[in-house]
Amino acid sequence: MSQSPNNPVPPKGGGTPTPGMKKSSTGLDENVGGVIAYLLGFVSGIVLLLVEKENDTIRFHAMQSTIVFGGIFVIGMVLNLIPIIGLMVSLLLTPVSLILWIFLMIKAYQGNRYHLPFTGKVAESQLRKMIF
């Protein structure tokens, strides 16, 4: 099967080619970089913030990951200091953060720059303040 501009070869995994998907300074596609930003929570977010210099979408996902999962980590540490109520809230926080983690990775892989209600705006403003 030959590839022509009007008939692009579909990706090996099926589906349709993603038009307009930009590469990053790290060589990753935007959607893959977005997923990696969430993969290890705030740790991978911080690493991508330090490494990625050009792609705003990957940097946004990295910043949002750092804020959200860094915040969840700190809240979890504080809750562990509170005897009974902390344990109960911590048991609720774990599945909620797991669902949020999976949701954000799916949105990033789909190429969506999904803004969480509060942290999305904070991530955008923090990125504007950073100079590279």
Mean pLDDT: 84
Poorly predicted tracts of residues: 1-18
Whole-angstrom Rg: 18 Å
What structural category arises from helix and sheet content? mainly alpha
Query: Overall 3D geometry?
Result: elongated
Q: What is the H/E order?
A: HHHHH
The amount of helix comes to 55-70%
The share of residues in extended strands comes to under 5%
Major beta-sheet overview: none
Q: Which oligomeric state applies?
A: single chain
- The total beta strand count reads 0
Please report the number of helical segments. 5
Q: How many angstroms does the end-to-end distance come to? A: 44 Å
Task: Note the main attributes of this structure.
single chain, 132 residues, mainly alpha, 5 helices, 61% helix, disordered N terminus
Plain-language structure description:
The protein is built from five helices and no strands. The radius of gyration is 18 Å and the shape is elongated. The protein is mostly helical and 132 residues long. The longest helix has 26 residues, at 84-109. The N and C termini lie far apart (44 Å).
